[in-house]
């Protein structure tokens, strides 16, 4: 059952991110609808609040797993001569994952997991270029981090982990500008109540 669902979702993702399929708002909406249909398939709707919540969590987990596997395939294609992240659909995939999270089809953490996987594979120069795309989508990412505690805890932890790993890799003397941009981005998208940005111990 999982294999069949993964195949359906993968086909929907391939159509959505190929040939600039998500370059417009209409394209993104069509991609979201196609992935939602592939994810639900012929599954009967669960009865009862608890059963429905469990079914939605299972679907979100399945979709996140398929998205990460699909990203891995695309990253392999990006290593070919003359290929780039945009040309193999990685940027389109990130936009689609963001839309899926915003629409509630995927977990809020899905797009942040993709970003974490992506930055782990890139050299500093490539990470700098991709970070500009992340900054351009800050307004869309911020609501996913300021929702209810149940929905926003995992994405906040994933983003903080990703940013901290990037900062660890960067040179404080050679990559000063990039470090500052990462910190400014975190200050913008994370709510003021975020514990990681509060000096709880009052250390001076």
Major pleated sheet: none
Shape: globular
- Unreliable residue stretches: none
Name the beta content range: under 5%
**From the helix content, strand content and strand pairing, which structural class follows?**
mainly alpha
Question: Number of helical runs?
Answer: 9
Percentage of residues in helical conformation: over 70%
Distance between the termini: 56 Å
Radius of gyration: 18 Å
What is the overall pLDDT average? Answer: 86
Question: What is the string of SSEs from the N terminus onward?
Answer: HHHHHHHHH
Number of strands: 0
Can you give me a brief rundown of this structure?
It is built from 9 helices and no strands.
What's the helix and strand layout?
Elements: H1 2-17, H2 25-40, H3 49-78, H4 90-102, H5 110-121, H6 124-136, H7 138-145, H8 149-169, H9 176-189
Key structural traits:
single chain, 204 residues, mainly alpha, 9 helices, 70% helix
Describe the model.
By secondary structure, this protein is mostly helical. The longest helix is centred in the first third of the chain and has 30 residues. It is globular, with a radius of gyration of 18 Å.
């Amino acid at each position: 059952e999982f294999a069949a669902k993964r195949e359906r979702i993968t086909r929907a993702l391939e159509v959505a991110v190929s040939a600039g399929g998500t370059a417009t708002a209409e394209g993104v909406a069509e991609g979201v609808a196609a992935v939602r249909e592939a994810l639900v398939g012929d599954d009967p709707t669960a009865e009862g609040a608890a059963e429905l919540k469990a079914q939605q969590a299972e679907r979100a987990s399945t979709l996140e797993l398929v998205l990460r596997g699909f990203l891995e395939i695309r990253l392999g294609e990006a290593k070919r001569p003359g290929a780039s992240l945009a040309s193999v659909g990685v940027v389109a995939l990130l936009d689609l994952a963001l839309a899926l999270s915003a629409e509630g089809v995927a977990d809020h953490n899905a797009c942040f997991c993709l970003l974490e996987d992506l930055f782990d594979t890139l050299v500093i120069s490539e990470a700098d270029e991709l970070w500009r795309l992340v900054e351009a989508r800050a307004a869309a990412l911020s609501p996913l981090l300021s929702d209810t505690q149940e929905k926003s805890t995992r994405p906040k932890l994933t983003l903080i982990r990703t940013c901290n790993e990037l900062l660890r890799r960067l040179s404080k003397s050679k990559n000063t500008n990039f470090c500052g941009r990462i910190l400014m981005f975190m200050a913008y998208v994370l709510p003021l109540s975020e514990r990681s940005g509060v000096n709880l111990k009052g250390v001076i």
